[in-house]
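User: I'm putting together notes for a lab meeting next week and I want to include a structural view of one of the chains we've been expressing. I don't have a solved structure, so I'd like a prediction I can at least talk through. The sequence is below, exactly as it appears in our construct file.
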Amino acid sequence: MNTGKSQAIFISRLFLFALCAHNTETARILGFFSTPSKSHTLIHAAIADTLASAGHNVTVVAVSENVYPNAKYEFIKIDLEAGAQFDRATLTKWVNRPQPFYLRAFNLVSSFIDTGNRTLSHPKMREFLRAHGEGAFDLILLGYTFNDYAMGLGAHFRCPIVASFMVQPLFALDRLVANPAEHAYAPMMLSNLRAPLNFWGRVQNYLGNLLEQWIMLPTFERDWQRVYNYNFPPDRYPPLEEVRKNVSLVFTNHHFSQGPIRPNVPNLIEIGGIQIKEKPDPLPADIAKILDEAKEGAIYFSLGTNIHGSHLTDEKLKIMFNVVSKLPYKVLWKWNDSERPGQADNIIYREWLPQDDILAHPNIKLFLTHGGMGSVVESQYHGVPMVGIPLFGDQPSNMANVERSGYGLSVDYITLTEESLSTAVQEVLNNPKYRKTVQDFSRLYRDRPMTPRETVVYWVDYVLRHNGAKHMQSPAVHMNRWQLMSLDVIGFLLAIVVAVVAVLVKICRLLCCRGKKEKLADVKVKKSKKNK
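Assistant: Thanks for the context. Below is the predicted structure for the 532-residue chain, given as structure tokens.
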């Protein structure tokens, strides 16, 4: 029975690939990834790698290092001057001096805008655009990090745009394809709210959406417009609001099984887990030996690609070391700095570790993580429970969802103690409910008609076959906010009501006046008869 099912799946996938290949020639695709975060680039570059493996001619321009050195795409690195990326001072401040949500969002987006502007205006990028004009590329793959201004690349090459986003979409991305906000029941991504929302949850979500749409977004809009006009002068390029309408697809690294359940327009495509390999690569020999021999289990510890030990305080590092060094398990600790927090027989430090392949190993019992969405998704996919130490960005909300879903526990970095971290680790390691819950979700998450990579290939080829697939675009993309809120219609109907009421009032006044005149006339007639 299982063999027959496997054969059916194989045949269906073969059919899908054949369908994708039908009438689709090799396309020239430009990937533009101006994010300074390596973890973000992992998602965008996974799409580029998938398209290159499918036979397309892909060129990637990025500011981060090439995260897939064996990929078939051509890679062009833009080296930015100091201060353009997440420097030590900035990350240290974000980690150790947490800010309110709106300040975190403003600071994060401002850094993305600054880096994107430096990337577009970099001499190497300017030369690239001069050397490649209209028709040089058939499609732009834009790694979206609040860089609407970069959509001028679509106008420069006169080709459609496919945007890629690292997590479930925010309002700024939703509006590119007119995806409905549904704030009554779909929690904002960066909030700690979880569906179903109670009354106060809906109040918070409504106010958060108002903050995002009416305060934050207009502020970013001014920066986007400034950067766009500088890099794509108005005398040679269409306005930014017109360029935005050139987005054919949005790929979001999310899947409905993660929640919240909500409607999406046809050209918003979920590809959650695109960075995860369907078949893990062989581990380096020394790592494979450690994990294979750890029959009692092993722990993987990583705080992500952006955070180094130097960004954390000595006190917090000592706490983490003291807890993991006392565990009766081998611990693979991704560590980027030369000075280590301590030495213990059970801890193996490595500057780089193949996270996806390690989490796929059956002897991994726990993932100690910062809670970045990429890490959370990989842990969910492989069914590994988590203990999170969220530091900044979306990490606190990600780990809040992990804890509420029963996939692990979260501890606060600022108030971190040996007791709080040790208690969380021991609870997740020794209570089987966490592993069972995340493994149950893993089966749900993997159950799809097409893999994320097959989905990417199909829909990109679909856009190419149909010249941008404008028929998939929501009519709302071409409407302004007042039209979307039907304020013009409401105003028109109110005007009709006011006009009708005014006419009725006028008629009533005329009738009243006529009645008074007739009454006065009757009185005069009666007086005249009486006098006679």
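A couple of points you could mention at the meeting. The chain has three domains: 26-277+451-482, 285-446, 488-531. Residues 149 and 224 are 5 Å apart (CA to CA).

User: Perfect, that's what I needed.
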